[in-house]
Design a protein that fits this description.
By secondary structure, the protein is an all-alpha fold. It has four helices and no strands. The two termini are 17 Å apart.
Length: 106
């Protein structure tokens, strides 16, 4: 939500839907993989980020303690989730700073 606010947009109603929030972040930070001027490699990476968000949302629902737990995560699953989320967040924060520095976001 903070990335959306910091990019000058209103946070959409999302009911905890990470995919919906990420779609707004992608739009605001110019990270949509469908851009025609991007290299194929970068398009693949941006598409992969969307898959990561979907995976994290699924893990949060199925393995987290927000709902009844269906699966018990093992340590390596937890580390994968934590490290992936950290890398994604760091990239998004740096992307926001880049967009601001370029004057694309106030």
């Amino acid at each position: 939500e903070e990335l959306i606010k910091d990019s000058g947009s209103e946070v959409p109603k999302h009911d905890g839907d990470l995919n919906k929030l990420y779609r707004e972040v992608k739009k605001n930070l110019n990270l949509d993989a469908s851009q025609v001027d991007l290299s194929e490699t970068l398009k693949q990476m941006l598409t992969g980020l969307s898959s990561i968000v979907s995976g994290l949302a699924g893990i949060s629902n199925k393995m987290g303690d927000r709902h009844s737990r269906r699966y018990k995560p093992e340590k390596h699953h937890a580390l994968l989730s934590i490290n992936t989320a950290h890398t994604l967040c760091e990239f998004l924060i740096l992307s926001l700073e880049y967009q601001k520095a370029k004057g694309r976001i106030a």
